[in-house]
Amino acid sequence: MTHRLDATDPLAAYRDRFVGAETPLVYFDGNSLGRPLTAMGPRLSRFVEEEWGGRLIRGWDERWLELPQRIGDDLGRVVLGAAAGQVTIGDSTTVLLYKLMRAAVAARPGRTEIVLDRDNFPTDRYVAAGVAEECGLTLRWIDVDLTAGVTPELLADAVGERTALVVLSHVAYRSAWLADAPELTRIAHDAGALVLWDLCHSAGSVPVTLDEWGVDLAVGCTYKYLNGGPGSPAFCYVAERHLPELTQPIQGWLGSVDPFLMGPSYAPAPGIRRFQSGTPPILGMLAMQDMLALVKEAGIGAVRAKSVALTSYAVELGDELLAPAGVVLASPRDPARRGGHVTFTHPLMREVTAALWERDVVPDYRDPGGLRLGLSPLSTSYAEVERGMRLVREALAGLT
Amino acid sequence: MTHRLDATDPLAAYRDRFVGAETPLVYFDGNSLGRPLTAMGPRLSRFVEEEWGGRLIRGWDERWLELPQRIGDDLGRVVLGAAAGQVTIGDSTTVLLYKLMRAAVAARPGRTEIVLDRDNFPTDRYVAAGVAEECGLTLRWIDVDLTAGVTPELLADAVGERTALVVLSHVAYRSAWLADAPELTRIAHDAGALVLWDLCHSAGSVPVTLDEWGVDLAVGCTYKYLNGGPGSPAFCYVAERHLPELTQPIQGWLGSVDPFLMGPSYAPAPGIRRFQSGTPPILGMLAMQDMLALVKEAGIGAVRAKSVALTSYAVELGDELLAPAGVVLASPRDPARRGGHVTFTHPLMREVTAALWERDVVPDYRDPGGLRLGLSPLSTSYAEVERGMRLVREALAGLT
Q1: A Pfam family in this protein (chains A, B) (predicted)?
Q2: Same domain as A85, residue A24
Q3: ipTM surpassing 0.95, yes or no?
Q4: pLDDT at position A147, please?
């Protein structure tokens, strides 16, 4: 029997486009690795036979060299609110964080601090620490409440004339706190700093309008809500006004002005391609294209509406089923401040997660004591949420 | 009718394992982008359905997190002559060059020069220039003959007590000059320098024995003779003796000692994994595994023997068919000093290349005036070489 909420969900039919949607598995980790689309297997086979196997090296001239920028433009249009020419695909989020942080601090000479919060994703913190050390800067840490994130007040207290760069996550990886990006960007700019947004946990589920917000720099991954597959390449955004002045340290031939001139010295390409270094990972860019088309078809506004409805339903079920067992909501209750996942804490959640995996219910565990439920809007049903939440209760009951 | 040389080629049957081998296309660019194996399409479909789609996020724990090191070990055993624990897969050649160069110069404090040759591949030269600039070092250039490469004499003249690092290509991308890697490594070491070998144009076609040669560092790509697909991830080798002391600047979570602890600060993993940064590109690692299995089955010695026979045949046909038209061999005539490709020069070769592409003969063009023929041993037949060389003569005749 169809769940009452699925029956009225205008996006319900999209679920059938994903591999495994028909199985009894409850998948609460689409915010970590999105499901493949059913279109993927055939697309990859076609690619191998026709494009790689058929065109061979000619594929680079005909299509692949421009693909990172072409997909970047699509991504900009469909989910990032970025005009063409500012987004490219490649490397990993970590490598792109490094490139953009190095570019940013070089563009703010004399300023000595990078501001970020202690709950930012580990790789962001580790890269920032490395960049700070090699460039002679210091990190200025913002302490945040684990169930929330960086507020305008916290950021205003942290930035000043010493701030070169502010590095923030749009959606916090544990709490799902949805930062007030335009306001935080304004505060960083008022202090004369650049701002670098990590969109890993928002791109594809929360509307982002980078141009409108006046963002300087952004990175994100494509294997979460953009379903690009395990380890698919990341994206970066550099606002057009910064492109002529910002350069990055990994000077590779494919970021140079004319790669096939193979000249004696490096000069960066004039546009966003200067943030590329090596040969673009074409195979890894195939899956995200189908997902982008799906998000475009559904509309990012409708995707966000379903995301809010799914997480609100999980919060409601948490109140009803889990709170009596001592489980605490560790995500914002206000949907306007919440991204696409919901975290519940309890001292036994590590064990609960293990027990659930045994039963084909797949959430994630994040210290301290957090059961994290990622509800990817186009591939998750309300029935799945309800069944999963009941099984969480059962697993917890079995352990107490 | 079977070509007389194909009839006696013990590796002839391998050609049927590649997509498109049955078509009339003459493919002389397997040293730039190897053909896909026919096994690839089905392998990718299976991966999407069963591994990515079926295991989802659990795939990381079950298999993917270790995959870069597992394939690295296979690569070490089958084609690099490297014991386990010293090779990993990830990023692009360019990004790995950056990481290893930064690691190397930090390990030789007080030394002020990076030595490399003017004919090294552009990305190697560009990365080295960037690393030198940011670390306050200078580049010391070796001038080489375009039809040859770095000899022991040239290197001995260039290195000294100021040399921190020597960066060399094992096979030169234009001339196919095959460097005397053990001797050049010894010369660099005698000067107290580290040596970084770029194996892009040799790995998979020329036997490499990194451990035996005492090499410190190496990188290479997997889309040429390892048939990993367009933009498949690169590999790096760091000798075990250096692993405890060498660190790289892109401090990402997946190179940290315990990624899922997500602790407050970065500490590098003890082994080769410290050279990883972001999430490993799993989809891009699938194709190279089948090719590695094929090379293992054939044996790298037999692969090299066929490679020498193919390039010698091309040289012989060049003497017969092209030399009378003023074409000059720009690769070593001695097969012991020649890698897996052959370059012929003539002032019209750019136009010849364009004309050949029109007729489904696909070589590469490299300035100045070089027609480069890459003869990937397991997918190229002698009949293909003969037909291709005759068509080169025709194309040239049509232009003069």
Answers
A1: DegT_DnrJ_EryC1
A2: no
A3: yes
A4: 85
Looking at the structure, do residues A242 and A268 belong to the same domain, yes or no? Answer: yes
Task: Verify whether residue A372 is a known catalytic residue.
Answer: yes
What pLDDT band is residue B146 in, cutting at 50, 70 and 90? confident
Alpha-carbon distance of A15 to B99, in angstroms, equals 42
Task: Out of A294, A327, A348, pick the residue that ends a domain.
Answer: A294
- A20 SS3 class: coil
Helix (H) or strand (E) holding A370, with range, is strand A370-374
What does the alpha-carbon distance between residue B194 and residue B178 come to, in Å, rounded to a whole number? 20
Distance, CA of B258 to CA of B267 (rounded, Å): 8
H/E stretch holding A41 reads: helix A40-46
Whole domain around residue B310: which residue ranges?
A: 4-38+299-399
Taking the C-alpha atoms of residue B391 and residue B380, their distance in angstroms, rounded to an integer, is: 16
Of B126, B130, B252, the CB nearest to A127: B252
Residues A15 and A130 in one domain: no
In the predicted structure, residue A170 carries a pLDDT above the cut 90: yes
Of B20, B223, B261, Cβ closest to residue A53: B20
DSSP β-ladder status, A328-329 and A234-238: unpaired
User: Distance between CA A259 and CA A264 in Å, rounded?
Assistant: 11
Give me the mean pLDDT over the B146-163 stretch.
95
What's residue B88's pLDDT?
98
User: Alpha-carbon distance B354 to B326, whole Å?
Assistant: 19
d(CA A221, CA A169): 12
pLDDT of residue A118 exceeding 90, the answer is yes
8 A C-beta contact, residue B327 and residue B396: yes
How near does any CA of chain B get to the CA of A343, in Å? 17
Task: Please report the pLDDT score of residue B148 as a whole number.
Answer: 84
The CATH number for B120's domain is 3.40.640.10
A270 and A254, same structural domain? yes
Check whether residue B184 and residue B283 sit in a common domain: yes
The shortest C-alpha distance from B139 to chain A (Å) reads: 12
B121 is annotated as an active-site residue: yes
Q: What's the pLDDT band for B147 if we cut at 50, 70, 90?
A: confident
Is-contact B370 B299, C-beta < 8 A? no
Query: What contacts A59, CB < 8 A, 6 or more positions away?
Result: A51, A52, A282, B33, B230
CA-closest candidate to residue A234, choices A195, A198, A270, A279 = A198
Q: Model confidence over A357-393: pLDDT tens digits?
A: 999 999 999 989 999 999 999 999 999 999 999 999 9
Indicate if B121 and B72 belong to the same structural domain: yes
**Distance between CA atoms of A193 and A303, rounded to whole angstroms?**
33
For residues B177 and B202, membership in a common domain is answered with yes
Active-site annotation holder among A35, A224, A273, A366: A224
User: How many other C-beta atoms lie within 10 A of the C-beta of residue B39?
Assistant: 19
Kindly state whether residues B355 and B258 are assigned to the same domain.
no
**CATH number of the domain that B12 lies in?**
3.90.1150.10
